[in-house]
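Narrative of activities, Objective 1.

The group set out to show that a structural description can be obtained from nothing but a protein's sequence at a throughput compatible with the screening campaign. Below is one input-output pair from the validation batch, recorded exactly as produced.
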Amino acid sequence: MRFPAGRPRPVVPTADLVALRRARDRMDRDHAQALDVDSLARSVHMSAGHFSRRFREEYGESPYSYLMTRRIERAMTLLRQTDRSVTDICMEVGFTSLGTFSTRFRELVGVPPSVYRERGADVLDSMPPCIARRVTRPVRNREASAPEPL
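Output recorded for this entry:
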């Protein structure tokens, strides 16, 4: 949530921030598990609506979007580092449908998983891991900068 210049941001209860961080850490750690907003909210003793609103305010995206991004990031790593099938990787990172996985992957990365494996793997072999993570972080279409007008 953006606040007009000159207006201070409201004081956020520390307990909310700790709970949100705990839920985000759980999504990072257990991304392959069947996680939903209701169970995440219950695990930090919040209602689903309050949890979703607070998560979006603090992290700039919904819990679902955050989880999908983590799963796609992990899939990108597996596609670069292993020869496992796209279907195996899809299931390992927490998707239950290959179609949904491919659609989300294309939305975030810009190409299907098989194309990413062919084109994206060679470029990163010589990069330090910290640079590779930054370069390969999925960017949602709405986050990508608009092209400069001619």
